[in-house]
Amino acid sequence: MKLVLCLLFTFKLTFARSSCGMDFTVSSYSMDLNSYQETTPLNLSMQRTRVSYDFLCNFYFYDFGKGNANSYQRYLENKNGDKISYNLYKINGYKNILTELSDMKQNSDAIWGWSLATNQNYQDSFNVILSYDRSLIYPAGNYTDSVPVRIYSGLPFNDPRRESSSNLFLTFSIPSSIALSLVDAGSPFSEGDTTQTMDFGEIETGDTLEADLKVRSNAGYRIYMRSDNRGSLKHQLLNDKITYVLTVNNRSVNLKRGGKGDKVADFSGVTPHDGDNLRLKVVMGNPQSVQAGTYTDYVTITAETKD
Asked: In angstroms, rounded to a whole number, what is the distance separating the alpha carbons of residues 93 and 88?
């Protein structure tokens, strides 16, 4: 009996693709509150420097990392951890969020193109959409993110080769801001309403009037009050005076202080959009020993951010 054994060997030989010599630049995103627009196009510029007989060197595409969020719910973040949402989209009606290669479902998910010639710039664009809600108050500061961007030769599902990488830097700046509104007691914040006249008519001891000081700030605040007549109503022609007491949220204000005056409030953080409410109350002193006439005083309110 003769036994013959035959061994069949099979193997597949693959070669790593060589670089196609692709490099690129990506625009940075820098915007502040005054120049804010929801959608901002940014540019990519690619150049291939190497002649290659590899057919796939005629194609290129980009992928985009996740940034701060480590997900595709991207956000800009300031040093205190406050966030503003944004995302990156192909310019195709905002249907495709730009992702990493491993998360693409089809070739059309990527920004891709042809690179048929060397040493020629190939331009592409994508959109940054920032979700900034003007009805909210965001803390002041610089909100940033850095997203890795990579260029590949080939196509996402056709033997891609990473060629080079860069970073997309995004910054959105919100300056410190503060606004005051002087309104009748119980009234809402009114933009631009910064004066209030308390008319007591014919004064009697203990007469009382109230108003509200609304403070809106994204960086904390300090409030100071100073009286022109150091806490008295003064006759328009004579030197006669009528003292009064001013309180802020039931705390007496020292109206005899010079400079900016007495500090009546100190707050850190962000106020509601309708502002913090400080109730002002003025109680008249005894007018019996003064001459008849018109008596006035002016109280100046100074506000400054603190954070």
From this structure: 12
